[in-house]
Amino acid sequence: MVECPNPNGDGGYCTQSQLQWHQFFAGRNQQxxxxxxxxxxxxxxxxxxxxxxxxxxxxxxxxxxxNLQELPRKLRYLKSLTIFRLGGNCLSERDLEVIRHLTSxxxxxxxxxxxxxxxxxxxxxxxxxxVINADxxxxxxxxxxxxxxxxxxxxxxxRS
Length: 160
Hints:
Number of helices: 5
Helix content: 10-25%
Order of helices and strands: EEHEEEHEHEHH
Shape: globular
């Protein structure tokens, strides 16, 4: 299920098949949509639409358990995003480069991304991050043992 403000404004739920971005924004100025949380989990999505970057008030985004193989470039415009749950997808290091532009991001959950061997250095060095969880990923950099020690250890390791 997808949590989204639907056209009748009752804040209910809709399925992925009902969530069409052009309908979601129909009759609204995209800059005025004030969604703070969006959960798109277990919908077998391979990509997210570029328009997701128009949700300027979005604070929490969950796309866990899909089949995401890339992230849209306009994701960088989610300047209010503090929590990003990306686990259970098919993302690699290259796909995560856009995350470094999320200047308010505090918690990044990457667990169970079957192709994730490296977290980009620029992401590891983000000053706002307090949590990076990459459990159950075939991670080589930074090593899982460093991640387990916490974000300060990750920053120190990736500086050298």
